[in-house]
Amino acid sequence: MLLKNKTAVIYGGGGSLGGAVARAFAREGARVFVTGYREESIKKTANDIIAQGGHATYAIVNALEEKEIEEHLAEVQKQTGSVDITFNAIDTRDVQNIALVEMNWSDFESPILTAMKTTFYTATAAARLMIKQGSGVILTITATPAVISYPLVGGFGPACCAIEGFVRNLGTEIGPFGVRVVNLRSAGSPDTKPFLDAIAQDAEKTAKFLKEMTSDTMLKSLPMKDDIANVALFAASPLADKITGVTIDVTCGTTSGFNAKNIVVPFVR
Fold first, then answer.
1. Which of 15, 82, 100, 247 is the most buried (most CB within 10 A)?
2. Which residues contact 1 (CB under 8 A, 6 or more apart)?
């Protein structure tokens, strides 16, 4: 098992992606601490893991409150002896589909402030404990607007850019202590709640949007939540122990191929 006897804390563990990562970690032997602010959803994730023979507990933790984060991590460390992995997948509260020239400041700043506040608090709190241990992995997640100029994404794109910059900087500071920081960049997973909700509201419009997103990738597909979870598992495992301070692109080639989607490549016979 890749994460046998490791302790993993998941922020936003009741969500589609956070839950998928929590289950993947547990499947590979980790003791998973599922956190969030909705008890029903984090309890379900923990119970699902236990039902599959894994080890999980849940706790209500506001990942935007520094004191709550620190107190929870201290309790986890007390119970298990270490905090080996953290993954932050909380909602960034972004407002989209509004042009920047028509957007108000509060809607623009919301995802930026939310993303950086939770990333800073959770990552630095974990880093302080991991530095003393001499090991640990801190994982974050962003999306393609971090590197591609998408219209109508509001402050979400700048928020993703900020997270990726933070990962690089934090990685340089805590790497000498044996602590790794890795970001995952997704193209958006059609089987996560935001997309499923959109399908329920307007199936035709969402299907068209997903088709366009798929067309923008090199592989002509999109990463499912389990694809992201599997890469998170790799990044958290000893298999990736020489990877830090970088973003792993899990976009099916969106980042590199977006502006080349209409190029026809002839086959050499």
1. 15
2. 28, 29
pLDDT band at 258 (very low <50, low <70, confident <90, very high): low
The predicted model gives 88-93 an average pLDDT of 92
Q: 257: pLDDT confidence band, cut at 50, 70 and 90?
A: low
Residue 139 CB burial class (10 angstroms; 0-12, 13-18, ≥19): buried
Structure tokens at 173: 């500071």
**267 confidence band (pLDDT: 50, 70, 90):** very low
Coil, strand or helix at 127? helix
List the domain boundaries for the chain: 7-189+223-253
Exposed / middle / buried, residue 81 (Cβ in 10 Å: 0-12, 13-18, 19+): exposed
Tell me which of 134 and 258 has the higher pLDDT: 134
Task: Provide mean pLDDT across the span 190-204.
Answer: 86
> Please, what is the Cα angle at 163 between 67 and 78, to 5 degrees?
35
Of 120, 104, 189, residue with least CA distance to 155: 104
Amino acid letter for position 109: E
CATH code given to domain 7-189+223-253: 3.40.50.720
Alpha helices in the chain (DSSP H): 16-27, 39-51, 66-80, 105-133, 156-174, 193-201, 203-215, 225-236, 254-257
For the record, the structure tokens of 166 come out as 């933070």
